[in-house]
Known about the structure:
- By secondary structure, the protein is mainly alpha-helical.
- It has helices at 3-13, 15-27, 47-50, 55-77, 85-107, 115-139, 147-163.
Amino acid sequence: MGVHDFFNFVVYDNPISKSVTSLVKSTVPRGSPQIPSVTVITEKVPLWKLASENGPFIRLAGLMGASAVALGAYGAHRSYPKDRAQELKPIYETANRYHFFHTLALLGVPMTRNPKLAGTLLIAGTILFSGPCYYHAFTGDNKFGKLAPIGGTILIVGWLTMVI
């Protein structure tokens, strides 16, 4: 008896499978009508309506994007002190880069499970990280420098909130 014969016996030829098959055939009437398929028509909803409940985050992302562009243009055309230009310009570029990245991340907040928490954390983290960096780059004063690591930590928590 080969493997094929063994499976054939187990599935078709043994008394238990024969009785189950005959029972199923006797309970299902022949020529029974097919269950009609149901077509569900759904209205196409624009994306802006889907995100309207969390629309303030989209608007805030617009404001943050506009401010990132304005600060980017100002910082790119600003003249830094010659003795500290090599130090201050990279700080400004880091602040502006993080400002832009987290503005784009804020656009995805309405699609998360907890958008209010994720959006609030991303906004607060961006302000607390980029703000002191901008201040340091534009004034040369680092009195708010201790806020940047706190802002960075809040940004990490904001990203993790988008995952959960």
